[in-house]
Structures
1.
Amino acid sequence: MKKSIGIIFADDMEYKPFEEFAKQRGGETSELCGCNKITLKMENATIHAIESGIGKVNATIATCVLKEQCGVQMILNAGLSGAVSGLARGDVAAGESYVECDFDLRAFGYKQGQKPMGEYVYNADESLLSFALTIHGVKKAKLGTGDFFLADSAKKVEYSSEFSINAFDMESAAIAAACDKYKLPFLSVRKVSDDAEDGSIHDYREMNEKCESTLTEVLVKIIENI
């Protein structure tokens, strides 16, 4: 039986390479809750890919919509990230774990990032992660998320120390949290665009505007092996 797989991209430059790939293979474009969407039937899976918009709220909504309206059985995510530790610009990494770094109830005795009545470090699906790590050049990484673009050396050091993350983005942990509630297998694949320090916006924009197909190629290889 074919799998039904959801893919979430935050912005148009991350979404367009997959959209182009899908169109060349007969993918059908549509709109879902105000977002661009393309559906592609592959040999072993039906793919529902969506351009969610940037940030945790948009990513969470996209996850819920893909589950409730498209009936997906797993979620993949791909996009650009800033390097925090152990990664360099151009590296491609599959997230083994995800944490919302900007969630903060320390005033009530919780750890930074910790949520009441739930997990706060979410783990990737082991099978999806294993598939990703068989792809040449893909590294394993711990991912952190927050609703801001990380371009602050001091906060980068703080997050490295507190969470031992390797890269930072604006969506992955939010999707992981929603997938945890739905019991959906999840994996995020990220390409490092910048060093998450002062002045990193230029590096991010430079890579984002190239609209590269690297992440699409990795996602397709994962899907073909599911």
Note: The two ends are 12 Å apart (CA to CA).
2.
Amino acid sequence: MRRREFIGLLGGVAATWPLAARAQQKTLPVIGFMSSRSPEDSQSVLAGFRKGLSEGGIVEGKDVVIEFRWARGDFGRLPALAAELVRDRVAVIVAAGGAPSAAKAATSTIPIVFVSGDPIKEGLVASLNRPGGNATGVYNLVTELATKQLGLLHELFPGATLFGVLLDPKFPSAERQAAELRAAASTIGQPLTFLNASTDAELDAALSALRQQRVTAMLPLGNPFFDTNRNKIIAFAAQQKRQPCTIFGNTWLTAGS
């Protein structure tokens, strides 16, 4: 082979190699990972997810490709994000942080692995012993603990005139959580005030309203938005010097002075 022909052949291989590599990568199974949170506040979740894959002998980039979709606190974006993963024909959808319902609504054939509240009430499975369908996962009791947390607050402050409840109306379980809390509060005769917040500005306004109404304790209902803003909510409680203020949230508890 002549030198000029050899150089030309090398150039052709070099030019086509990236395309070949990408084509090979596309043949790998794709995991679609969707969440209502942001990647910045989900680092521990992602680390655990990748560790679990590794312990199962699955290496990202070698055995599978992971496509991430983040709603960044905007639950209204979840249906479109789920539809994107379905159009991309991912092998499985991992739905966390308030995303399982949107994933389930988007497909009845692609397997879904979820982390959610009561999967029966959220329409993810038919029953716990015979779930059926295309979804399986972890039943997270956080959203179901609100009535228990209310009962504990009532024991801590039996003479409280008012408890404040922070509610994100865009969270899929919000309406059900609020109804269960109202029923429980009625049973024990505990007055409640509900403040809605789905954005930072609305959260600031809700906290200001709680201060003006001089609530004895507040209960942020478990959801990704309040968990992401827990530092702001805890700081607010600590600033309430003239009245006791206790917070029960997703996985955290603090008491003001």
Note: Confidence is low (pLDDT under 50) at residues 1-23, 242-246, 249-257.
